[in-house]
Amino acid sequence: MYAHYSLSMQISLTELRRTPGPALQHVRDGEEVVVTEAGIPLCRMVPVEKPTRYASLVAEGVIHPPTSPKEPSAIRERSLASWGEASRDVKA
User: Fold this and answer.
1) N vs C: which end of the chain shows fewer Cβ within 10 Å?
2) Do 34 and 5 form a contact (C-beta atoms < 8 A)?
C-alpha cells in the first residue's frame, strides 16, 4: 500500500520535532528524508532545486523572457536568404 523508501533516510515526526538538525543536514547534502508517523510515511523533505542562471537573471530583472516564440519558418527563410546573399558576394 505504501511505497518503500529504503534509499532515503527515515525519521519519525516525534524525532524530527525533538532534533531536526540531523534530518536537515541530510537534506542540505542533497538527500531525501521521509518523515513517518506511527511508522507510516507522512511526507518527504527534499532539497530545493537551485535556479538556473537564466532563471536567476529573469528573477533579478536583468533579462526578460520572450513574449512570443519566433516562428521557425521565418527564421529558416531569413537564414536561407542571408546564405544566398553571402554566396553571391563570393561569386562576384
Assistant:
1) N
2) yes
